[in-house]
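Title: Request for sanity check on Substrate-binding region of ABC-type glycine betaine transport system prediction

Description:
We are preparing a figure and want to confirm that the structure record we downloaded matches what your pipeline produces today. Could someone re-run it with the sequence below and paste the raw C-alpha cells into this thread? We only need the C-alpha cell string, no images.
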Amino acid sequence: MRHRLNSKLLIAAMSAAGVAFAATQDARAARAAGADDASCRTVRFVDIGWTDITSTTALASIVFEGLGYAPKTTVASVPISLAGLKSKQIDVSLGYWWPVQQKAVEPFLESKSIQKLEPPNLSGAKATLAVPSYAYDAGIKTFADIAKHRDELDGKIYGIEPGSSANAKIQKMIDSNQFGLGGFKLVESSEAGMLVTIERAVRDKKPVVFLGWEPHPMNIQMKINYLSGGDEVFGPNYGEARVYTLTNPEFLTRCPNAGKLVSNLRFTTDLENRLMQPVMNKERPAEAAKAYLKQNPQVLDAWLAGVKTVDGKDGLPAVKQYLGLR
C-alpha cells in the first residue's frame, strides 16, 4: 500500500515537474520570439502633467488596450517621474522635452539609470515670441522690429506664469535693453489668461507680442507667425525643441513587444495641436485619443509595424477592431 502510494506521488511529482518545465520552455520561447511575459501586461506610464504629454500618453494607452495590455498612468512632476523610471516603478515617459529638461535628465542618462530612445517621438516643436498674422504683415517680423512698434504694442510683451524659464528669458531681454526693449513690460499670467488676452486682441485686430509655442491648439485656433532673430534668447530655429521617450533600463529587454510599440511611436506638431484642443476643452484624454485614432487610423500602420497583441496575434487588425474600424 505504502509502495503503491509512493509510486503515485512520484508520478504526480514527475508530472508537475514536466508541466513546470514545459511552461518555462514556453516562456523562454515566447521571449525569444519577441513576446512579452505576464509581468509586462501592465505598462506603467508617467504623465508630467503637460497637456501635450497627457494627450500622447492617452494615444499610446488606447493602442496598448487594443493589444490586450492594461496600461496604467501616474501623474507626477518631472523630478518624481525620473526617480520612478530609475527605481523601475515606472516603465515609460513620453515627455522628455529637450533642451528644456536637459539639466534634470542628463545625470540619469549618464549613469545609465534611464534609457532615452532615438529618434525623438516629436521633432519640430518650438517656443519663441509670436504675433498675430496681421501684425506680422504690418511689419513685426523679427525681434528687432518689436521696439519700432512700441506705441501700438503699448510697451507690453505677454508671457505665461511667473517663474517660468521662458518669462525669465523675456525679462532678461528687457533688463539688458536687448533689441531696444528696455522699458517694455513683461505681463505675466497663466497660460489660459494669456490666451484670453491674445484672443481679445485678435478679435479687435490689435497688434500684440506674446510667447507662442508648438504643439499647442493656438496654432490652429488663430493665424499666428513666429518672429525670427531671437536665436540668442530662445535658441536656433525659433527655439526648436524635441521630445524624447524615456524608459526604465530594463523595459525594452524585459518587454520586447511592448517596447517595440513604444519605440515606434512618432507624433507630429499638427497631430498634437489637434489632439490637445479637445483635451484642453475638458474632454477626457482617453475619449479624445480614441476619437482621433478613429478619424486618423493611418497613423497606426507605422506604430504597429512588427507589434503583436499580448497573446501573440497580429497587432494592427486587433487595434482596429478595438476601435470599431474595419
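Thanks, this matches our download. The chain has 17 helices and ten strands.
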